[in-house]
Design brief:
Blueprint lengths: L26 H38 L22 H4 E3 L10 E7 L11 H5 L3 E5 L8 H4 L5 E5 L3 H5 L2 H6 L5 E5 L2 H4 L6 H11 L4 E5 L1 H15 L8 E2 L2 H12 E7 L6 H4 L18 H10 L5 E2 L1 H15 L1 E4 L5
Parallel strand pairs: 2-3, 2-8, 3-4, 4-5, 5-6, 7-9, 8-10
Antiparallel strand pairs: 1-6
Length: 332
Amino acid sequence: AACTPVACRCDHTPLPGPPAGHWPLPLSRRRREMKSNKEQRSAVFVILFALITILILYSSSSANEVFHYGSLRGRTRRPVNLRKWSITDGYIPILGNKTLPSRCGQCVIVTSSSHLLGTKLGPEIERAECTIRMNDAPTTGYSADVGNKTTFRVVAHSSVFHVLRRPQEFVNRTPETVFIFWGPPNKMQKPQGSLVRVIQRAGLVFPNMEAYAISLSRMRQFDDLFRSETGKDREKSHSWLSTGWFTMVIAVELCDHVHVYGMVPPDYCSLRPHLQRMPYHYYEPKGPDECVTYIQNENSRKGNHHRFITEKRVFSSWAQLYGITFSHPSWT
């Protein structure tokens, strides 16, 4: 309402101004300061996020990467004597109630390496007291170089069907063969589709077939052995022990002396001429390159892989201890 002399008294006192030195900043300057403050807060958040990420990665790396593969931790105690492991506790008969034969004087391991092609080692391999082969490496068509005799065949869970689908090659051709199957419990003994049951069914068709599975307690021993020799936990490093690892340990358990044909030394791939290609398996000429396979598996940090080169370093450390020798190529 309008101010009248009767209704009210008008106050003509001027409104107080801002205190001295505190006049409002120009709008453009205030906007610049607000933008600057926002950028500072964003920078702080980015730095904090980066620090947290680094801490997470460092913690993960510390937990899973005890040392770089390709080197071995120095032993802090005397190595396990593999020849004192109990044979009866380690290998469970799948067919019948037999016990795994416990002793061979001289054994040879015939690897699946293409280094054996053209060697004409067949007759020499045939003369060995015990011959050990791996997975589904055939002898038909290659006997001049790798022989036929097969005393033991160590087979991974992933190769069971490859072997059983070719009984003429792997069962009938060498009926004296003793099969040793290895695999994690969830593969070998799972309720539905157990691989042990598959092998047992094969035994009904081939009654002379002799087969064993590595026991759960022995599987743990294989893991513990790898950890004690390398300082590396297999599971935490997302790796699987190779069939070569199982085969070498079994050979040391069963044999007084072991000679290995076709296994390359641990430093082979770092010294090999880059243009020389060697198939990983002698029976797969168009298969993957040997060194590419070794290096990719050794360096991979994702998924499940084999640490072939690390395993070979362990084998090298066992050579003098257990009387293991290597040829084609030689390790000396």
